Amino acid sequence: MLYGSIEAGGTKFVCAVGNEKLEILERVSFPTTTPEETMPQVIAFFNQYKDDLVAIGVGSFGPIDIRKTSDTYGYITSTPKLAWQNYNFLGAMKAAFDIPMAWTTDVNAAAYGEYAFGNGQGKSSVVYYTIGTGVGAGALQDGKFIEGFSHPEMGHMLVVPHKDDHFEGACPFHGNCLEGMAAGPAVEKRNGRKGQDIPQDDPFWEIEAEYIAQCAYNTTLMFSPEVIIFGGGVMKQRHMVEKVHAAFTRIMQGYVATPAIEEYIVTPALEDNAGTIGCLALAEKALKEA
Ligand code: ADP
Ligand code: ZN
């Protein structure tokens, strides 16, 4: 019995199969080009396991339609990636494999991985952010994703500009929202080099930490979760989490007594595997609920 995982990202698709213990057995990746080119590769990968495959979990870049009663449930909707606009992703998968499937956002899948097996394990309320090419977020309460007419978009929350930061912001919709100020492309645009090439002692990282701490502050006030997890490329700067702790403590001014900061604001225990393991766990859940 095998579970399938599809992490459909804006730059690459990562497909994997896992066993009943949700251990990853095989994993491949393809560049995200067009549905005509990428989807046959996805289907060919899972076709190798067709006899044993019992469910698939999909975590997709978005925005996506997650309303089960909607005519366009399972579609990628208004994405800036034109070839994927209004694409019936889940429909294409269902046509190839008639098995239960879970359908959620890429960041919800990673959040679920951390909830099931990582730094959210044993906790009932978990919020996960990825600070990468964009800022994505997923919130879980008692194993369920918090969502309403659609999935939340906390990555675009407004932040207060840092006093020494005169960057206008890089979000095409809002300019200086959290994603516009703190995602990888904003870091690169402001500094003229990629985050991975900026030394640890550069004063810029204090500015970056300030925005992430504002995000943690807002998240605390809105959800009072048991843990807030920050992953994604930018958080590979290992010194960032401590800087975020310090800025968060300063901004909060003791107003809310959170859990101990080292256990409250953390990076993902599963690191880059959070998404794949999350999709496998969601596949298992979809099978149970089918
Ligand atoms: P994606 O969001 O596309 O899934 P990532 O989470 O890896 O992918 O995010 C990519 C972004 O993170 C890029 O803008 C890149 O410059 C930045 N990034 C990657 N590694 C680091 C690093 N070690 N330090 C700072 N920024 C990084
Ligand atoms: Zn925005």
TrEMBL record:
Keywords of this entry: Magnesium, Metal-binding, Transferase, Zinc
Broadest EC class assigned to this enzyme: transferase
Protein name per the record: fructokinase
Cofactors required: Mg(2+)
Family label: Belongs to the ROK (NagC/XylR) family.
Catalysed reactions, as listed in the record: D-fructose + ATP = D-fructose 6-phosphate + ADP + H(+)
Taxonomic lineage: Bacteria, Bacillati, Bacillota, Bacilli, Lactobacillales
EC numbers for this chain: 2.7.1.4
One Pfam family recorded for the sequence: ROK
InterPro entries: ATPase_NBD, Carb_Metab_Reg_Kinase/Isom, ROK, ROK_cs, ScrK
